Each structure stands twice: as C-alpha cells, then as structure tokens.
Amino acid sequence: MIRTFEDLDRLAPEKGPKKFIVLAPEDEEFMLAVKHSWQRGYIEPVLIGSRDKIERLAGQVEFDIAPFEKIFESDRQGIADLAISMLFAGDVDMAGKGQIPTAFIYRSIIREESKIRKGTMVSVVSLWDIAGLGHLTSLTDAGVNINPDYESKLEIIKNAVFLFHLLGYPKPRISVLSGQREIGDTLESYRDFTKLREAAQGGELGSCEIMEATSLAEIFLPGKKTFSRYSDINIGKADFPEIMLMPNLSTGNILVKLDFVIPCVRRRSLVMTSRGPVLIPSRSDFHDSIVGEIALGVVTADRVRRA
Amino acid sequence: MLRNFKDIREAARQEGKKRIVLAPSGPAGGPDALYEAAREGFITPVFVGDRSLTDKTLREKGFSSHDFEIISEQDPRKCVMLALDMVRGNKADIVMQGAMEHQLFLDLALNREKGLMQNRVASFVSVFDPPALDRLTMITDTYIHNNPSITEKIAITENVIKLARILGIGSPKIAALSAIEQVNPAIPSTMDAAILAKMAERRQFGDVTIEGPLDIDCAVSGKAAARKGIQSAVTGQADIYLVPNVEAGYLTAQISVFIAGMPMAGVLMGTTHPVIVQLPLTSGENKLVEIALAVLLSGR
User: Fold this and answer.
1) Which has the closest alpha carbon to B139: B149, B129, B125, B151?
2) Residues of A whose CB is below 8 A from B215
3) In 3-state terms, what secondary structure has residue B213?
4) Same structural domain, B156 and B35
5) Residue B143 DSSP class
6) Of A20, A27, A240, A301, whose CA is between 20 and 30 Å from A191?
7) Residue B265 included in any domain
8) Angstroms from A86 CA to nearest CA on chain B
9) Strands, DSSP E only, in chain B?
C-alpha cells in the first residue's frame, strides 16, 4: 500500500522510465519538470506541440531534447487527440498537460473511452499527503464537473476507487462531503449521500465503503457537538477517509488547493483513464510539484499495465 | 488595526462592560468563556431560563445566584423572546444562544418582526488567526446561506466590510472566490465575483479592493497568480475571502480548523445587535474571542 508521496518517489525510478507524452510543453516550469523527471529515470518523454516553442523552452532550461521523439503539431485539439489516442493504443504509458486547454484533453479522453465502451465520465482525483495521517487521502472531483448529479457522482467515485485499488487500498473509505448544517433546507449533496450509501451497500460501487460522516466536524468529533482545545484534535487517530467526494466544482477547487496555505498538506492530481494516467497540473503549479505528479503517474501507469 | 485574537480580546476589555443575556440558560449554562469574560470584568452575564438549574450551574462555575441577574422562565422559546426584548429595549447589549437547537434559535433571533433583523441580510463570518500571518483573515458566508444570490452576496460583502472596519482594517482587500479565475457563464459564481469586483472598482462599497473571480491558489499566492498572468493588490494579500456557496464556506472553515489547526472564531453579522451562536467549529479556548468580537460590535 502506498501511504505517502515518499513511497511514490521511491517507486517511480524503479518502475520507470515510462513513455510519457507531453502535450504542448511550452512553459518553462513544465519543461523543467520534464527535464528533472527524465534525469531521475522516471520517464522517456515524447514531446508534442509547436516546434519553435518546444525548442526555445528546452534551450532556456538547458535540456537536450535531441534523443527524444518529437511530434510537431500546432492545432491544440489535434495535439490532444493524437496524444490521447497514443495512450489508448498503448504507444505511450502516460500523458501530461502542458500549455493546452484542459477541455480539449477531456474531449479526447471521452472519445477514446467511448470507443472501448468504458465509462465516459472524466474526473480529477487530487491526492493529499497529510503529515501524521498514515495513509493517502483524496478530493474528487475538483476539476471537471461543475454540478455533478447523483449519476455523475457514482462515476466520480468509481474513478477514485479504481485509483485507490491501484495504490493498494483494497476497500477505500469514502466521505460524501456536504455543507449540510443544522439549519436551512436539505442540500442536494446530503440527499445524494443517502443514495450513494445505499448504492455502495448494494455493491454497485465495488469494494469500498461510504462512511456515515459527511463533514470534517463529524470525522474529528464523532458524537460530539464541540471541542475544547486544538491539542484534542489528532488526525492519526481519526477515522479519516481515503476519498472525499466534493459536492460541486467550486467547493472542490477551493478545498483541493488549500495546500497553498496548509503546510502539513501536499497535493498531486491526475485523471485516471482505463488505459493510463493523464496528468493535469494547474497552470499555477511549479516544476517541483509537477515532478511529484509525474512520479504518481509513473507508479499508476505501471500498475494499470500490470492490471 | 487588530492583528490577532489577543488584540481582539485586549480591545474588548477597553470597551466598557457589556451585558450578555444567555437564553435559555439552564443545565448547559453557556460556554466556560462566558464566565471567564465575567471574571475578567468586560461583560456582565444575564440569565433567562430555569432558575433552579441556572442556580446550580452558577455554583458549579464558582459563582453565586446573587452575583448576576436571573430571569426565571421555563419555556425555552419564551426565554429567547425575552432576551431579544431586553436587547431591543437596551436592557442588554448582546444575545447568546443557550440550550436550544440552532434552527429554532436563529429563526427567533433573525425574525423580521420580533427578532433583531431590520430588512437586512444575515451572514456568518469565520475569523481566523493564522499562525503564519501577521494579520487576521476572514471567510464568509460560512453558515447561513446555501446558495446566495448576487443580491445576498452584496449584503454579505457589506456585512464583512463592516466587521473589517471594526477590526481596524481601513482598506480591506477582498478575494471573490470561484472555481476558476476567468468569467464563465457556465459557472455563475464567476459572474457574481466579477460583478462584486466591478462594484468595488466603482467604489460602491467604499474604500475596499475586490478582485474576482479568483481561484484559491491565485487568491492566497501572489506567485501563483503571476504564473496565471494576474496582477492585483489582492493576490497573496487578501484580508477577506468571499466564497461562492455554503458548501465551499463551511467545508473550508472545517479544513482550516481540523487539518490546518488554524484558530477560528465566528461572528453573525447583519443583525441590529450582536448575536452569539454556538457552533461546533469554535474551540472552547476561542469562545472568549467570539464574546470579545460581539463586545466590539455592540453599539456599532
């Protein structure tokens, strides 16, 4: 079982190098991340995008790209379509987004998934490594679905459960997070929680468990209405889920990036397709965090192939 | 400018004694902080509830029933109504929730005819004292509105600006959050955020700066914002974060408390007089800050 990001970083050079198609690496931070990941033995890059930009950026970060396969294509949707079709054909092990609109990549993934009659719900799983927790946790979906309905949430959960099975968690626990309070009308997220719990109990979601808790307060203060001191809170002793289902995109996107202000939290995200991982770094991410995401991609790509 | 919770408590002590009416009083007796504030001398509690139970609680807390005014009333609903009457009649300054469910207490306190609302919108502000910063930060609305309309968001913004001014933040910087930093009609909160930013630009909120829509990474990090090509006085320097809906607000507050361990105190805004609500996200040690905030709000 992979419990921390250090586990991923240790495994990535063992499982690499994986063939990694990089979509439009036309930004210095992203090109630096590719360079460092190659130097660490994680990847063998395949670069696809604008010739001028790729060569200029590689020069800027002093990265000799002569030995690597390059595909020169300037049309953004064309880049996404070709790269994702190569992933699904098994020509590459994983893909990663550079300077290209995310929606283009999602469109290509949906097209390829539908060809092989798999689920076509694309969702982003963002892993959190929280100091002292003892296992990975995740927030999903924080990237694609604006207001997912019940059916969409079923698929979002299945995507996250698939990833956690790959990471070695045989029965991940899921908390369907909701802003339901003691006041106000019942929120859609809370109504969905009840239905999702029944679906999980009926075996519809595979090997996983939907917890009773729908808020952090319930996770940390089970059966209590308040707490006295911060020293009473111990995340290592809390019944903390592996998967936290977000009620909507706004909430997910805000929560998932709280690692910017919480020093004990680190984040790595990906989209898990049936043929391998697609990395979707935020445009605000820096090269060290992108290298971390590439390590996650290498390990999950290896396990998808073996599965 | 008050920069941390210690400053807030100190400022409250300088305000002169305020009368806080706890309703309904009884076995719960209110938080320990109520008695601590009374001992420190910056508030005088008044109790409305079952007299014998209140007497017993006071003895347990180290006081006598002669130390404070107790108004005997068995019916919890009437207790709260009496407390609201006292505040409206200037016989007390602040109402504090006692042993009553949140929904019923807020229904009474926020009733437009008999409560403390005057055609205004109530909202809840979570005030944080982040250890890594030398200033307070606020998130709103973290409790009251499920999916506020733009009209309600304008009132929520006005409410938090009022609180910022009381805390001595002369020109608050406000991040209007959404899922993305671009205006996108498919995500209505991006349009609400843009409207608030434009209103601020036209000085409809006075001396404040609002940037929006911002995603959270741009809001909290100037470097991250620069990577996305956003230059603003707000990015990395926000005093206030406006959230798009209560799911985002309530859950962000919870993660900040339980995972980040950030000290938090809550304030109900938009009422004619301060109302203290007993929510589970405030630790016992920060209840005193909530009382201090109510003291600072009183009379303003």
Assistant:
1) B125
2) 253-254, 257
3) strand
4) no
5) S
6) A240
7) no
8) 29
9) 18-25, 43-49, 69-72, 94-97, 123-128, 137-140, 173-177, 209-214, 240-242, 264-269, 275-276
pLDDT of A279 reads 97
| DSSP secondary structure letter of residue A118 | -
Q: Verify whether the Cβ–Cβ distance A257 to B243 is below 8 Å.
A: no
| pLDDT the model gives residue A118 | 64
Instruction: Indicate if ipTM > 0.85.
Output: yes
Convert the pLDDT of each residue in A104-141 to its tens digit. Answer: 999 999 999 888 866 668 999 999 999 999 999 999 99
Q: Are B109 and B139 members of one domain?
A: no
pLDDT (0 to 100) of residue A241? 98
Q: For A47-58, what is the HEC assignment?
A: EEECHHHHHHHH
B231 touches chain A (CB under 8 A): no
Which residues from chain B sit within 8 angstroms of residue A133, using beta carbons? none
Q: What integer pLDDT is reported at residue A89 of this predicted model?
A: 96
Residues B62-114: tens digit of each pLDDT: 998 899 999 999 999 999 999 999 999 999 999 999 999 999 999 999 998 89
Q: Which residue of A261, A286, A288 to mutate against B (max B Cβ within 10 Å)?
A: A261
Q: What is the CATH number of the domain that holds B28?
A: 3.40.50.10950
Does the distance separating the beta carbons of B258 and A219 come in below 8 Å? yes
Q: How far is B248 from chain A (nearest CA, A)?
A: 4
pTM for this predicted structure:
0.94
Question: Of all residues in chain B, what percent carry a pLDDT higher than 90?
Answer: 88
In terms of domains, do B72 and B128 share one?
no
Element (H, E) at B289: helix B287-297
Total domains present in chain B:
2
CB contact under 8 A, A249 and B179: yes
B252–A253: do the CB atoms touch at under 8 Å?
Answer: no
**What CATH code is carried by the domain that includes residue B140?**
3.40.718.10
Distance CA A203, CA A79 (A): 39
Region A237-252: mean pLDDT is 96
Q: Under a CB-based contact definition with an 8 Å cutoff, are residues B30 and B55 in contact? A: no
| pLDDT band at residue A44 using 50, 70 and 90 as cut-offs | very high
Are B198 and B277 part of one and the same domain?
Answer: no
* Residue B240: CA count within 13 A, CB half-sphere: 29
Give the residue numbers spanning the domain of B49: 5-120+271-297
Q: Which of A182, A225, A254 is nearest to B255 (CA)?
A: A254
Q: Is residue B266 part of a domain?
A: no
Task: Mutation target for B interface from A32, A178, A181: give the one with most B CBs within 10 A.
Answer: A181
Q: Do B250 and A181 touch (CB under 8 A)?
A: yes
Min distance A285 CA to chain B CA atoms (Å):
7
Q: How far is CA B225 from CA A92, B138, B184, in A?
A: 33, 20, 18
Nearest CA in chain B to A254: B216
